[in-house]
Fold:
Amino acid sequence: MNRITVYERANFEGLSREFTCDVPDLHELDFGDCIASLKVVGQPWIAYMDPKYEGEPYAFEEGEYPSVGRPNSFSALRLVHHDLGDPQITLYERPNFQGACKVVTEETNLAYGYFNDRVASHIVQRGVWLLYQHPGRGGWHCLAWPGERIADYKPELNFQARLSHLRPLRPGQPL
Structure:
C-alpha cells in the first residue's frame, strides 16, 4: 500500500498524520504548513506549497526524510498514480517540437552535452520527470507528466531554454 507519514518536527518527532490518498488542502485537516519530516512507502508523493496542488512542487520518493528542504511550507499532497517503469521524454531544440531532438530514458546531466541550455520544448511519452534549471539537480525545477506536450518553454514554463538536468521519478517497491 502507498502511504506518506508526515511529522510536524524534524527527525520524525511531534504530531504525525498518515495519508494513503491525495490531500488537496492540509489546512482542512489541521496539518497545513507544519511538515518538517516525512516517510514514504510505495509510490512517490508530490508536496505542494499551496492548496489544490498549486505552487512549487517537491517530489518525495520511497524512503525516510528526517528533514525536508522547505519545512513548514507544504499545503497539499498528491500520490503519483502513474506507471513509472520504462520512462521516456523527447527534448527538442526549438519551440513547437522543432529542430534537433534527444530521447532520454534515464537521469541525464545535459551540461555534458550539446543540449545543455538549448531545450525549448518536450513531449513526455512515459513516466513522471523532474526538470532542473542547473546541472546536478540544481536551481528551479518543475514536473513533467505522462502525455504532457510543452510546445514552448519560455511562456509555458518560464524556463527560457535553461534545462540542464532531468530525471524520472523512481517507482516504489510493491509490498
